[in-house]
Automatic annotation (TrEMBL):
Signal peptide: none
Gene Ontology CC terms, in alphabetical order: membrane
GO terms assigned for molecular function: metal ion binding; monooxygenase activity
UniProt record similarity statement: Belongs to the cytochrome P450 family.
Source organism superkingdom: Eukaryota
InterPro entries (alphabetical): Cyt_P450 (IPR001128), Cyt_P450_CS (IPR017972), Cyt_P450_E_grp-I (IPR002401), Cyt_P450_sf (IPR036396)
Name of the protein in its database record: Cytochrome P450
Organism annotation: Penstemon smallii
Topology versus the membrane: Single-pass membrane protein
Protein residues bound to heme: C447
Keyword annotations of the record: Heme, Iron, Metal-binding, Monooxygenase, Oxidoreductase
GO process terms (BP): lipid metabolic process
């Protein structure tokens, strides 16, 4: 047996022994023991199927900042924090000291040179190009009509079909299809039509789920282990490699061909192609860059929005009083949702009137932030406002999930779904600083799609809430998935019943 295999076997036996020991040894604290050699890895292994809840327990017990010790020589030490003062410091005040860094890039290698991996000049290029596209006068008009078209021709026929047939179905899957089609249309100018009654299997659409789970594992496992799995082509790494192939197969054919882009056709890929041409890269580089850019934007637009909608509907289905308040607001503010036999389109201005629905969506984002954690690496050593010292290139994990569940931030009722939390005394939407509510990130790297996501989510949510009664399927348990995007682990199984409106 090779020395490496003996080492792996010994590590496995020791971890199992420590896990067994810590199970039998009753302790009042949930803080993990720091074992010689293995550090806190056994505690992490024991909680590996409830990683976000575990982080929240650690952070509640340690005033919002916890120093995790990994096994010796594995470079797994990390500082985990949910302290708003630290967030403000890292994301805004000392932003230049906290780039995404090489560790982040290694984990998210699948995104290549896309915006999420980029720092400094490349990041500025991405941000400038995306912003100028989104600030174009046509952007919101086109967004409104394309989202509405998806709702009218994709979503409503499917929901009508399921409700007429009284079929149970997974609402999360429907949302993922809808947001996938929409973001592909916006970025690639191609609608793959995954949202249709026969629920077609589109490999690229499903590949996102495999990829995001594997990416969380790369945060937890020592780099040597996931690299070994990748090399052997096993486990989640195998799925990530397959997902990579599915993305490439889908995106490359959509990339515009050799000829120069003269006109400003309204899709992001062309806007980037035009901007990139001005930088004079080779054709090969350009194609790879456009693939990375598109994939990153598809990640940004598909999973976040569909995850927020999924948790919104779970929260509504388990809180009927809030559901009727949202319905009342839609009826009052949007008057008749119906125009003859057709559902009525409502625009960006009208969607801003839906203050209670906005509060409900914000609650969904607070309790189940789709991007559950962030990863930073300081260039220079630093001292955080919490008093913790951090070394250069060390790992800092910011748990957005835990932040929404801290009594110290949101008060004693922090675990309750209360859309009122987001309504001011004058009946307007209440704004919270992003270092307290970082679902869309904070500081210069704040999400560029926030407005766009709210419009899309309001159109979809208002249409469903107004037209259908939603029941959860009995016995189906709903809990967050261990992944970098906080999807519902086994989906959201529901039954719909059409309302008489
Ligand atoms: C509910 C929906 C959404 C949520 C919760 C959300 C959240 C976030 C978060 C947390 C980040 C920071 C990620 C990081 O730096 O690693 C981010 C960045 C970003 N988001 Fe969103 N997002 C949403 C929807 C969208 C949509 C629809 C788009 C449109 C394409 C979008 C585009 C972007 C872009 C381009 C960035 C990168 C910003 C930068 O690094 O400068 N997002 N978003």
């Amino acid at each position: 047996m090779a020395i490496f295999e003996i080492f792996l076997l010994l590590t496995f036996v020791t971890i199992s022994f420590c896990v067994m020991l810590s199970k039998t040894w009753k302790r009042s604290s949930s803080l993990p023991t720091n074992w010689p050699l293995l550090g806190m890895l056994p505690g992490l292994a024991q909680n590996s199927r409830r990683i976000h809840a575990f982080a929240t327990e650690l952070l509640s017990e340690s005033n919002g900042t916890f120093e995790f010790k990994g096994p010796w020589f594995c470079n797994m030490d990390m500082l985990i924090t949910s302290d708003p003062a630290n967030i403000h410091h890292i994301f805004s005040k000392n932003f230049s000291n906290y780039p995404k860094g090489p560790e982040f890039r290694k984990i998210f290698e699948i995104l290549g040179d896309g915006i999420f991996n980029a720092d400094f000049e490349l990041w500025e290029f991405h941000r400038r190009t995306t912003l100028s596209f989104m600030n174009h006068e046509k952007f919101y008009t086109l967004l409104e009509s394309s989202v509405w078209e998806k709702v009218e021709t994709g979503l409503i026929p499917i929901l009508d079909y399921f409700s007429e047939q009284r079929i149970d179905f997974d609402l999360q899957d429907i949302f993922q299809r809808l947001t996938f089609d929409s973001i592909c249309k916006m970025v690639l100018d191609y609608d793959p039509g995954s949202l249709s009654t026969d629920l077609p299997y589109v490999p690229c659409e499903k590949a996102f789920n495999d990829a995001i789970e594997a990416l969380l594992h790369r945060h937890i496992l020592p780099e040597s282990i996931w690299k070994l799995q990748k090399w052997l082509g096993i486990g989640k790494e195998r799925k990530l490699t397959d997902a990579w192939k599915a993305f490439d197969k889908f995106i490359y054919p959509c990339i515009p061909s050799k000829e120069k882009t003269n006109d400003f056709n309204f899709n992001l890929l062309k806007a980037f192609k035009k901007a990139y041409e001005e930088k004079n890269g080779s054709l090969e580089e350009q194609r790879n860059f456009l693939r990375d850019t598109s994939l990153s934007l598809m990640f940004a637009g598909r999973d976040t929005t569909s995850t927020c909608l999924t948790w919104l509907f779970w929260l509504i289905a388990t809180n009927p009083v809030e559901e009727s308040k949202i319905r009342e607001e839609i009826e009052t503010e949007l008057k008749l949702m119906k125009n003859g036999n057709k559902w009525r389109f409502f625009n960006v201005q009208e969607s801003r009137k839906l203050i209670y629905l906005h509060g409900a969506l914000s609650e969904s984002l607070r309790l189940f932030p789709p991007v559950a954690l962030e990863h930073k690496a300081p260039i220079l050593p630093d001292v955080l406002p919490s008093g913790n010292h951090i070394q250069e290139n060390s790992k800092v994990i910011i748990s957005f999930y835990s932040m929404g569940r801290m009594e110290s931030i949101w008060g004693k009722d922090c675990l309750e779904f209360k859309p009122e939390r987001w309504i001011s005394a004058r009946g307007r939407t209440k704004h919270e600083p992003s270092y307290k509510f970082p679902a869309f990130n904070a500081g210069p790297r704040t999400c560029l799609g926030k407005e766009m996501a709210f419009i899309q989510m309001k159109m979809v949510a208002a249409t469903i809430i107004y037209n259908y009664d939603i029941q959860l399927v009995k016995g189906h348990s709903v809990s967050p998935r261990d992944s970098i995007i906080l999807q519902a682990k086994d989906g959201l199984k529901v039954k719909l019943c059409k309302r008489n409106v």
